[in-house]
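hey so u asked for the seq, here:
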Amino acid sequence: MSLSNFLASERSQSLRSATKITASLLLLAALAVTACSGPSTTSFVQVPPPPPPGQPALGTVSTAGNSPYSCPTGWYTYNDGAVPMACLNATINCPNTDAIGLTFGWLNPAGIIANVSAAKGVIVMFNGGGGGPLPGNFNFADNYFNAGYEVVQIAWAANEDWEQTYFTFSSGDTASIQTAACRPATFLNYIYTNSAYYPAVLSTNSQAGMCAHGLSAGSAAIAYSLAYYGAYQWLDNVELISGPVLSDLEQGCEYPNANPVTVCGQTNCNGSQCGCQLGGGGTWTLSPTYIQGAENSVTTWTNANPACAGTTNTSTQNAPWLAQSIVDQSTGAAGAGAVPTFTYPHTSLSGWVCRSVVNTSGYDCTANDNADGTVCPNNSSPQGQIFYANFGPTNMPTPNYGVYAVDQCQHAEGVEEGNAPGYQPAIFNGTISGIDAASDDMVGYSNGTQVIPAQCVLHH
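ran it, structure tokens below
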């Protein structure tokens, strides 16, 4: 996970041509007004379902006193700004955390995209780092929207990273990213239960999926939601891009450093790791230690002393780091963190991690401990492996599960621009960009004779 600005922002790239409608300026203006008028936000009271036994409770979302408005620059818009999202400001309150501000935007394709009279589902998108102040994932959002899905973007308030339980720690305050993950889990549940969003889509399409997409730390937000907050009870498909990066904070932070991790190195499914799609290439081994600036963010989020991934022995901090990880290894003992769930019988799951990074600069990544994320790999794939290693022959996510190696990434977490040789090789012959592969996995694909079914459909 690199939290530098170049990884948090979107890159321009060549995307597969998307079919877009041509409409008059008056029609587009009318659609823009419709998109921004938004539904009523004061008549619905959220009642979250109970979490699984022994797992943390969800929080609440408040939009009281706020009205929808046209999203500003930096949020997804259809047709080069012709139809903007509607945005709404909100506050989430979760146990043992500060209240956190956020803005979310949504856009429904019905009546905008040709031949789409009802959205095929809802896709909630989380960006990397602290998740703000802009939502990112613009190019994925464009692919999903053009395929007929309502897209929802979220940006946490400036200087309020979702991973940090208290924005100013006082004596007695406990830092725990696992606890703070109540925030994205609560937001996902809000979109699922609030009559203005997923229920409205489901009322027009009985097979509509409720799905999520996350980049880097955004993929960790989804993984925490699945493992600790019962999101597997309502998410139909998830696409995890470059992560989850917070799978084992102890291994990411401890000094002396943890041993390297071999990605897709297990042999639990007929001699290979369950779900791994390597496209004829091999496994790879990297350190799970946080680098390229991520260690500084994790230090802040966990209020750690000694610091994450420093040069001071961390033996006193290792257990607290592990207890707030996605894979906390807890069996319920006091102080060991909540017990995670890694059985998702109705949630498809795909992970996309960089196996190699383009480096034409001559920079020696090995000699410099992969310090430059523009040309060197980082910890995102080994941290992701720590999560994916929990799925075996008896508990693979159903109905679809895959972990895809992505080659020639354009930076440490540049899955979008890389090549995913293991994705549907019978159709793409080992050549398909990461963004197209993950998008097709989510929303489906057809070339007229060959069809890949969408995973974002109702599985529950």
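Residues 5-9+22-452 form a domain with the Rossmann fold fold (CATH 3.40.50.1820). Confidence is low (pLDDT under 50) at residues 1-48.
lmk if thats what u needed
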